[in-house]
């Protein structure tokens, strides 16, 4: 893909029940410990990076980027229903969704997250 063009994406809130993990998502297998740790971080600091997906014909969204965040939000859902309708960046088409799903692998970013840093004094 050498041609560059502006991607027009929209952002909308969806209930967690309408969000599913896309087969395009690079993180198909995530440990419960990872999900729990991320859920604690989201609860403490908020959802800093949005999740991204492709709308389905049935009114749902398949999440192509942010699979761990989706799992963490589902983990928090019972205790914190205020997080039950996150904002989702919607790809305008399948080609864009595929690019969003694979850019992390292309950059070699799919790896174990770095250890937590000590707070600054």
Automatic annotation (TrEMBL):
Q: One Pfam family, short name please?
A: ParB_N
Q: Where is the ParB-like N-terminal domain?
A: 12-106
Q: Gene3D superfamilies from the xrefs?
A: 3.90.1530.30
Task: Give the source's domain of life in one word.
Answer: Bacteria
| Coiled-coil features, chain-numbered ranges | none
Against PANTHER family, the record matches this protein to: CHROMOSOME 2-PARTITIONING PROTEIN PARB-RELATED, CHROMOSOME-PARTITIONING PROTEIN PARB-RELATED
- What is this protein's record name? ParB N-terminal domain-containing protein
